[in-house]
Write a structure and sequence with these properties.
Two copies of one chain form a homodimer. Chain A is built from nine helices and three strands; from the N terminus they run αβααββαααααα. Chain A is mainly alpha-helical. In chain A, strands 1-3-2 form a three-stranded antiparallel beta sheet. The longest helix of chain A has 25 residues. Chain A is globular, with a radius of gyration of 19 Å. At the A-B interface, α3, α4 and α7 of A face α3, α4 and α7 of B. Chain A binds a DNA duplex through α3.
DNA sequence: CACTTGCATTTTGTATACAATATGCCAAGC
DNA sequence: GCTTGGCATATTGTATACAAAATGCAAGTG
């Protein structure tokens, strides 16, 4: 919201620390459930406790950290219910993004998305999972940008970060992957046809499929997914 | 998210300060755009600057405050675009809440909601606007509770608080009010009939109507709505 | 041997001191 | 008269000191 005001000035010590921690959590440098020792983190980040604690509060508000009074902060460890609920909300948000995007999308946007889709198909053909995830994320971000709703974008990014802290990447079998790429193809077609309702439904189904895949992974923990319980 | 963990222990100085500030902002004790002086607020709340600043960070993450580096915090002043965007997201969230609620609602829930609806009709008949708003909010909160999605509830409450900081209450003419009450009647019927798609559509239309009303009020600023620009 | 109790240590919570930055005012110059 | 520079003041930013609480360990007790 807002963000429009002029004094562009991001950055302050707490913001920088929060950003650094956010990355650590999302990229897996800090695993779910890990306890965060203030003094130790202060040294690692080169800041004192005051700005670090402000960063903690920000991340806690984003749902990436849980703070227990007198017992410090730890990286959130999402329960199966949290994941189910989170993806349901994500599906609704992406559905909205699709509807809004249809109303504002330009031919140039579609050309860009087609290029991304082509990259995605290439990554898929070459079994390049990291590239696939990167492009996948770029496409979804692009769609949200086209939607042009700042509140939606903000909400989406926050929730996305929380779910990414799970590090559910590794879970993707061949069939699911093929399916996901095909879904993206349909989505692009719906967008090009300016069919908002269709795009919305496709996005919701797409997210529901992801939800199911992640939940399945969480339950049979034979995959490399890491959840809770691990002290740093 | 989460919140399920056992050590119930809410409350700490920063949490308490944040809660107090949140109330001040939403209830109008601090108007949009008001600059928040740390030392002064410290005295008013009886806390020192450290916990107050942590509270600032929490509220900023919720979008109730804007913090400018070296220039302090001020109550957010939503632009017309922010309001448009915010209500669009709210509509999507409430729509989801409706769909989920249908899948879980019990007869007892419906009885409760019918009672609330009756109260609402009474308040409407008696032109009791404050009571109407209170009951209206209770109904929407109840629906979200029935939906049973913690992430949705959290997201909903946060965004709701931000929009309520606008204090758009005063804007409701007779026709709009009648319409809103009628819509609530239809929504309750759809819920009782377990018609998720219908309830979803009704909720989205309901929210869109509210959006339009608020935007109209914002634009003709002859009403008593107060937006931005007012230093405390 | 399990369980409690008390102490030492660690860790978090809050206040405050000091530093850096911004703000407002007044005078000097154009 | 308007602008500009510089100083005094106020305000925010960060580090740190002290207080309070939790944690871990060891000794004592049933």
């Amino acid at each position: 919201m807002d963000g429009s005001s002029f004094p562009i000035a991001r950055s302050s010590l707490p913001d920088a620390a929060a950003e650094r921690l956010r990355t650590l959590i999302i990229e897996g440098g800090l695993l779910p459930g890990a306890k965060l020792n203030e003094r130790e983190l202060c040294e690692r980040l080169g800041v004192s406790r005051t700005p670090l604690r402000e960063a903690f509060r920000m991340l806690a508000a984003d749902g990436l950290l849980v703070q227990l009074p007198n017992r410090g902060a730890q990286v959130v460890a999402l329960s199966s219910d949290d994941v189910r609920d989170g993806f349901e909300v994500m599906a609704a948000l992406e559905g909205l993004a699709g509807e809004l995007a249809v109303a504002r999308v330009t031919d140039a946007d579609i050309a860009d998305l087609r290029a991304l889709q082509a990259e995605m198909e290439t990554a898929h053909a070459q079994h390049d999972l990291p590239a696939y995830y990167r492009i996948n994320r770029a496409i979804h971000d692009r769609l949200n940008a086209i939607a042009g709703n700042a509140v939606l974008g903000q909400t989406y990014r926050t929730l996305n970060a929380r779910l990414h802290a799970l590090r559910f990447r590794s879970n993707l079998n061949r069939a699911k992957w093929d399916q996901a790429v095909a879904e993206h193809r349909s989505m692009l077609a719906a967008l090009a046809a300016r069919d908002g309702a269709a795009l919305r439904d496709l996005l919701i189904r797409h997210l529901r499929a992801k939800q199911q895949a992640v939940l399945a992974t969480m339950n049979n923990q034979d995959s490399e997914i890491l959840l809770g319980g691990n002290e740093q």
